[in-house]
Design a protein that fits this description.
Blueprint: H1 2-41, H2 45-66, H3 71-83, E1 87-92, E2 96-98, H4 104-124, E3 133-142, E4 145-153, H5 158-170, E5 178-184, E6 188-196, E7 202-204
Parallel strand pairs: 1-3
Antiparallel strand pairs: 2-7, 3-4, 4-6, 5-6
Pfam families: SPOB_a, SPOB_ab
GO molecular function: phosphorelay sensor kinase activity
Protein name: SpoOB alpha-helical domain-containing protein
């Protein structure tokens, strides 16, 4: 009985996440229509074209995130902003990187690292005068390594966050793995991770 209740609760949580994400997508879509319509009414066709190009690139970037091929990670990244308004997450994947053919252990390591980085900044972020803190995460392939960078702006419990990030870096567990500590203070932070891959990821420009 307890097991069934736990399963039912998990299903309800996932359904609620889906509905929340769907609501945000609907809101964003309506907002895009309103902006385009506003530019058209003002006959600012140059701004209209620029805005459409920006929306198109964002959609293409979301497609590249989906192409990472690690389902739990993809779902986490694409639904994050709908579920966590306190931290605005921007994920940049400059080219298609398919990690699906990596061994399961390698996939789990990557997923846990990326999610761990985001949650470290989320958990140790401080109140930002009513504005969301921002985190930009870049994911791309470099030779036989996966490059992951994090750039944070806002207010931060810097020492607690750094300790959490260093703990994540220890999980790289390979002499070829690398953690580069960049600028890090109570207002901004830049970190880089290089994750060794057992086989080279499939990359498409």
């Amino acid at each position: 009985m307890e097991s069934k209740r736990s399963i039912d609760n998990s299903i309800q949580e996932e359904q609620q996440k889906f509905l929340t994400t769907l609501s945000l997508l609907r809101h964003d879509l309506l907002n895009h229509f309103q902006v385009v319509l506003g530019y058209l009414k003002l006959q600012r066709y140059d701004l209209c074209e620029e805005y459409i190009m920006r929306v198109t690139e964002n959609a293409n970037n979301d497609s590249r995130i989906s192409s990472l091929g690690i389902s739990p990670l993809v779902a986490y990244l694409l639904t994050y902003n709908a579920l966590h308004p306190e931290l605005k997450l921007e994920v940049e994947v400059p080219e298609i990187v398919n990690l699906a053919r990596l061994p399961e252990e390698n996939q789990q390591q990557i997923s846990q690292l990326v999610i761990g980085v985001v949650e470290s900044y989320q958990q140790h972020g401080l109140f930002n005068q009513g504005q969301p803190n921002t985190l930009v995460v870049v994911i791309k392939s470099l030779d036989q390594k996966l490059y992951i960078s994090a750039e944070y702006e806002g207010f931060l419990n810097e020492q607690a966050c750094l300790q959490s990030l260093r703990s994540l870096a220890q999980q790289l567990g390979d002499e070829e793995g690398l953690f580069v500590e960049g600028l890090h203070n109570k207002r901004e932070s830049i970190m880089e991770f290089y994750v060794p891959l057992s086989i080279e990821a499939e990359v498409k420009g």
